[in-house]
Amino acid sequence: MAQRLRTIAAMGTLYLVRHGQASFGAANYDQLSPRGLEQAQRLGAYWRARGLRFDAVLTGTLQRHAQTLAGIGEALGPLPPAQALPGLDEYDSLALIRAIHTAPLAKPDTPELFRQHFRILCDALAQWMGGTISPQGMPSWEDFSSGVHAALDLVRRAHAGQNVLLVSSGGPISTAVGQVLGTSPEVTIALNMRIRNSAVTEFSISPKRLMLQTFNTLPHLDAPEHAALVTHA
């Protein structure tokens, strides 16, 4: 019993946050929309109202990660300096699609074209994860997955007993969940497609392992008046 109590006391929580809504379909996707910024600010305000504070912050290196973190901090209050890790950057969805569909795709500005875009992306992800395609300018799946694993290992080794904020994208977050749960590639892809903008996934942190507590939650947007702020892309 004493050992169990010591283990519980040593645990912290890792909060993995997907970036707010970016600019899907625009020339530069890597830019939060006004709605995406509001999502981040509402998350920060939600945590502030509950007195949550963070001991460490990790992010990817993309602009939408930095903008999401800034929006959270604007409403939450001062955050520790962020450690930016390239291993938390998203895969290149356009490079993946081009690897299996060489003809240009129409801009996904209708529901059917939107669904087509993500059907092709899921197929490309499966082939990339299976090692049958090597999209131009992208790492192998093994290297991408290793970057996520290294970030989780850093959290486990350096931040047990602390609250850690990690701001990234759907690909790395679903990969992290897949690694912790030992899911198949097909399940990891399905998880990836379900993660909503500014959604929170929580892992408990102990020196030995990470354990899933929650997945893809939006407690800061659960009021009916915030329904229009729930987005996926």
TrEMBL record:
GO terms for molecular function: hydrolase activity. Keywords: Hydrolase. It comes from the Bacteria. The keyword Hydrolase applies. InterPro entries: His_Pase_superF_clade-1, His_PPase_superfam, Mito_Ser/Thr_phosphatase. Pfam families: His_Phos_1. The keyword Coiled coil does not apply. PANTHER family: PHOSPHOGLYCERATE MUTASE-RELATED, SERINE_THREONINE-PROTEIN PHOSPHATASE PGAM5, MITOCHONDRIAL. This is Broad specificity phosphatase PhoE.
